[in-house]
Structures are given as C-alpha cells and as structure tokens.
Design a protein that fits this description.
By secondary structure, this protein is mostly helical. Helix content is 73%, strand content 0%. It is elongated, with a radius of gyration of 16 Å.
C-alpha cells in the first residue's frame, strides 16, 4: 500500500472515531451526570434493544462503546507519528466497530 494512502486512511479514521466517542459519551453524560432520563423509554415492553431495560445498563453500554472508540481514536493519533499500523487496518476496525454497535442495537 502506498504510504500516502495509508496515512490518509489513518487520518480519515480519527474524525470518524471522534464523532462516535462524542455521540456515545454524550448519551452517558445525559443519563449519569445530568440524570436526564425523561426522554427515554427505559423498561418499556416495546421492541427496543435489551439495554433499554434500565438507565444504568444503557449508560454502561454507551460508556463501553465510547471507551472502545476512544481507544481507536487515540491509536489513530499515535499511529500518525509512529507509523506502525497500516491506516487501512485502523479504518477497518472502525467500520467493524460501527457495524457491531449497529447490530448490537438491533438485538432485542
């Protein structure tokens, strides 16, 4: 793989991971810190994902995803200087984690 393409893919993964860190952590922040649970349907018997059973479970799932995306974000930043991991691998891991989160949200 051309070094410029690998660097571009690495740099491309950084804002994508940053967005998902922000989205997931903001959900955790709203539930745990701000205690804003009125807009959520926790405990309902609808076809919501299983982690909507309680606010604690939902916030733990969101915190877990934000930590994993943060690790990929930091790995991308670190890899810009170190150039140890190919950029396509980090981007592939990013999209794999996005798919895991998507399919995890479909599991009821």
């Amino acid at each position: 793989m051309h070094p410029d393409l690998a660097k571009f893919l690495n740099i491309l993964s950084i804002p994508i991971n940053g967005i998902f860190v922000f989205i997931n952590f903001s959900e955790y922040y709203k539930i745990v810190i701000l205690e804003n649970i009125e807009t959520y349907t926790f405990g309902s018997e609808s076809n919501m994902p299983y982690y909507y059973k309680t606010s604690e479970l939902y916030s733990n799932v969101m915190l877990t995803y934000s930590i994993i995306f943060l690790m990929l974000f930091l790995l991308g930043l670190w890899n810009i200087k170190q150039k140890i991991i190919h950029g396509h691998l980090i981007l592939t891991l990013t999209f794999a984690l996005i798919l895991v989160q998507l399919f995890h949200s479909l599991y009821t």
